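haha ok so turns out i had the wrong file open the whole time. this is the CORRECT one, sorry everyone. sequence first:
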Amino acid sequence: MPSASRLLRAARHDGLSRGTRARLLRLELARRLRPRARYPLRLGATTVYLSRDDFEIDWKSLAFVVVDEAYAGDYAGAVVVDIGAHKGYFAAYAFERGARTVVSYEPEAANFSLLQLAAMERGEDWIVEQAAVGATAGEAELHVMSASWGHALHPPDAFSEYEVGTQRVSVLALADVLERAHALAAGAGVVVKVNIEGEECPVILGTPPSAWEVVDETHIETHPWAACGAGEIADHLVPAGLSRCASAHPAVLRLRRGGSPPAGPHTAAR
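then structure:
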């Protein structure tokens, strides 16, 4: 079950509506009394789903987004690119903070099924695609882990004990993904979130900085097993006009166009 302290934080969190806080508590009670394959949770105008088999990981993923607010930023009126979408919790968060459109990319089949269900119920402003994102387009083997947030194209050797299978997946080029967002934005802002389990280095460093010139803000989750550090990624994106700024979570690299805004109540410099 979710830790009592984190569940209590969620129930008291000022950033969540009173209705959402109540629904989180009811969801935990329903899970104990009436087990089912999936559990709906309404976040504002969006319903997302937690799965029974992956409930602990799904809860932690949800809490990272909506309780810890690891991706706190400026989403008002933006087209948001959600790379490594899992089951759509970040997308729901972005919509609640004013995103106009979210385009989500998730390669793993079980995650994608609940992501797609949530997006279909939301409407046309949420576009989902079952694909990974890489430096170049093609196909690849996705290594599927027992924990739903650990699926990776090139996991470290230490992950082998958790691997439960592989899936052949499509890979889209990051430059093409960013250009698509730019076309959808039609002059509005573009915000990009990246969480791809250690692939952030080859994908971002393997994409020309010029492809990022259409992006106004990005949140990149970094991983200790990745081949580079946050500083190398930040330096790579300087020519695109993106500057490192205060982030709400130490594992998330945040960059913005046009300088660093002052830290808000939920932000802390990395």
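The two ends are 30 Å apart (CA to CA).
again sry for the mixup
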